TrEMBL record:
The entry's keywords: 4Fe-4S, Iron, Iron-sulfur, Metal-binding
Highest taxon in the source lineage: Bacteria
PANTHER family documented for this protein: NADH-QUINONE OXIDOREDUCTASE SUBUNIT F
Domain NADH-ubiquinone oxidoreductase 51kDa subunit iron-sulphur binding: 426-471
Annotated CDD domains: TRX_Fd_FDH_beta
Name of the protein: Formate dehydrogenase beta subunit
Family: Belongs to the complex I 51 kDa subunit family.
Xref: InterPro entries: NADH-UbQ_OxRdtase_51kDa_CS, Nuo51_FMN-bd, Nuo51_FMN-bd_sf, Nuop51_4Fe4S-bd, Nuop51_4Fe4S-bd_sf, Thioredoxin-like_sf
Organism: Rhizobium loti (Mesorhizobium loti)
Functional description taken from the UniProt entry: NDH-1 shuttles electrons from NADH, via FMN and iron-sulfur (Fe-S) centers, to quinones in the respiratory chain. The immediate electron acceptor for the enzyme in this species is believed to be ubiquinone. Couples the redox reaction to proton translocation (for every two electrons transferred, four hydrogen ions are translocated across the cytoplasmic membrane), and thus conserves the redox energy in a proton gradient.
Coiled coil: none
Cofactor: [4Fe-4S] cluster; FMN
């Protein structure tokens, strides 16, 4: 049998040198006259081990990583094509602790299969969910998704089944499924990873959504900073269309569903669902007032399901294994699994899919291994740039929508960014206000003007000018933004600002030097 070598084509792995490693392995194969098949798989998400090269041996796959081009010759000399020992040897990939501790439902195939092989997708359970869905009525599919407890993974955690039911129950001559792949949150990469590593799962999820709600057309809105994901998704859609997964007769059924990939406009606010719809329609991305809900009047005024990539990519496993199977994972009202993206100053950065319920401390200290610098963890921002900063004192908070909300935080898209004790939380609070000022769509005053005033006021605190009065002013401003903004950009910026002030008050005390300078 020809040896198979897996080298990730995922852009995270490419950023760490996977392309150079692939070229070095190909030329070494040629030089040694060895015939082998190189598969460009997705990443398994253990980025601290990328580029992670795997070989298929008689005893299963064996991983090596992080591989550098300078390792390639010695890998061949060590007999890595048959799993030989080498300093980069990691053993069976699914036994690597970071991967072995995970519950991979949505990401089950990511890093395992060839992303653009529909055969490989089917061999690993792909299309089972869609096949099952085709045997059900739309209402029965919606009932399964509702019963599974799946909530939107884009940020707000809204129950997916309820959203789908609204679209199913709304009359329209045309309905749409829109996939939100704008993924603008700091430290997040789950959407990108799945689009590059297992694109068919998203296509399958969107097709199921179409059949469930009566929509015949889908759009994936992918941020412009993701050219690799755009390329993979375009190819996958073409393959799916040729194979009859998409088109006038989905898998030979009377149902029609097709889709297109669109590149985003490059603004954070275009991830907000209504601004995204404006952008998709070719306009400047401005937030729309609700009602009407997109489910009633969405893209081009038609009933529209708008869901995050991970929400949609989690549907196939639900339709394959059943709502009860999925619902069995998790805690409270947070059911199933969530791909936690561990980033920032952390030793083991990567994607960790787990059932809801792990504590923040377990995620940061045990899975993430603490900081990369080796210094104490000072703060963890959970949920992107609009998420709160949690101190170590809140590390017992379980990863659950309600538990985070109870502590004035949010899970958002499940990105966590770790900071060590050198972080200046006043600067982080200022950054949150500045980010809001830069990214504001400008529609409402508390966000457009408030964020700029927020930056100025925090600067005055930093300069030691009437710190107590200015702190009270920032708090007041945050309340105005929280309750007076039209969308969560202005409405949630107070979370990082107020959590910094509440949990790290020392960073807001005037430094003697600053006072002296006044
Ligand atoms: C400023 C802003 C940016 C957002 N960015 C994203 C994003 O990049 N991706 C995403 O899925 N949702 C984003 N959202 C949330 C969406 O508005 C919406 O809730 C989501 O797409 C719904 O899908 P879900 O129910 O599957 O989560 C953003 C919201 C706001 C207010
Ligand atoms: S809160 Fe900000 S981003 Fe949202 S609608 Fe208002 S101005 Fe636009």
């Amino acid at each position: 049998m020809i040896p198979r070598i897996y080298i990730p084509g995922d852009s995270g792995a490419l950023a760490l040198g996977a392309e150079k490693v692939a070229k070095a392995i190909a030329s070494e194969l040629a030089e040694r006259g060895i015939e082998a098949k190189i598969v460009r798989n997705g990443s398994r998400g253990a980025y601290f081990l990328e580029p992670m090269v795997e070989v298929a041996t008689a005893n299963g796959r064996v991983a090596y990583g992080p591989v550098k081009t300078s390792d390639v010759k010695s890998l061949f000399d060590s007999g890595f094509l048959t799993g030989g020992h080498h300093k980069r040897w990691l053993g069976a990939p699914d036994k690597i602790p970071f991967l072995a501790k995970q519950t991979r439902l949505t990401f089950a195939r990511c890093g395992v299969t060839d992303p653009l092989s529909l055969e490989s997708y089917k061999k690993h359970g792909g299309l089972n969910g869609l096949t099952n869905a085709l045997g059900l009525t739309p209402a029965a599919i919606v009932a399964q998704v509702t019963e599974s407890g799946l909530r939107g993974r884009g940020g707000a955690g809204f129950p997916t089944g309820i959203k789908w039911k609204t679209v199913l129950d709304t009359v329209g001559d045309r309905k749409y499924i829109v996939c939100n792949a704008d993924e603008g949150d700091s430290g997040t990469f789950a959407d990108r990873m799945i689009m590059e590593g297992d694109p068919f799962v998203l296509i399958e999820g969107m097709t199921i959504a179409g059949i469930a709600t009566g929509a015949t057309k889908g759009f994936v809105y992918i941020r412009s900073e993701y050219p690799h994901a755009v390329a993979v998704m375009n190819k996958a859609v073409e393959i799916a269309r040729k194979a009859g997964v998409l088109g006038a007769s989905v898998l030979g059924s009377p149902n029609a569903f097709d889709m297109e990939i669109r590149v985003g406009a490059g603004a954070y606010v275009c991830g907000e669902e209504t601004a995204l719809l404006d952008s998709l329609e070719g306009k400047r991305g401005m937030v729309r007032a609700k009602p009407p809900l997109p489910a009633h009047k969405g893209l081009f005024g038609k009933p529209t399901v708008i869901n995050n990539v991970i929400s949609l990519a989690s549907v196939p496993v639900i339709m394959d294994k059943g709502a009860a199977f999925y619902k069995d994972f998790g805690m409270g009202r947070s059911r199933g699994t969530i791909p936690i993206q561990i980033a920032g100053n952390v030793k083991y950065a990567g994607l960790f899919e787990a059932a809801f319920g792990m504590t923040l401390g377990e995620i940061v200290d045990e899975i993430g291994g603490g900081t990369a610098t080796g210094r104490p963890v000072k703060a963890v921002q959970v949920g992107g740039p609009l998420g709160a900063y949690f101190p170590r004192a809140l590390f017992d908070t379980p990863f659950d929508y309600e538990a985070f909300a109870a502590k004035d935080g949010l899970i958002g898209h499940a990105g966590i960014v770790v900071f060590d004790d050198t972080a200046d939380m006043l600067k982080q609070a200022r950054f949150a206000m500045e980010f809001c000022a830069i990214e504001s769509c400008g529609k409402c005053t508390p966000c457009r003007i408030g964020s700029t005033r927020g930056v100025e006021t925090i600067d005055r605190i930093a300069a030691g000018i009437e710190p107590e009065k200015n702190l009270a002013l920032v708090t007041d401003l945050c309340n105005t933004m929280k309750f007076g903004s039209l969308c969560a950009l202005g409405g949630f910026t107070p979370y990082p600002v107020m959590s910094s002030i509440t949990h790290f008050p020392d960073d807001f005390k005037p430094a003697p030097v600053r006072v002296a300078a006044e």
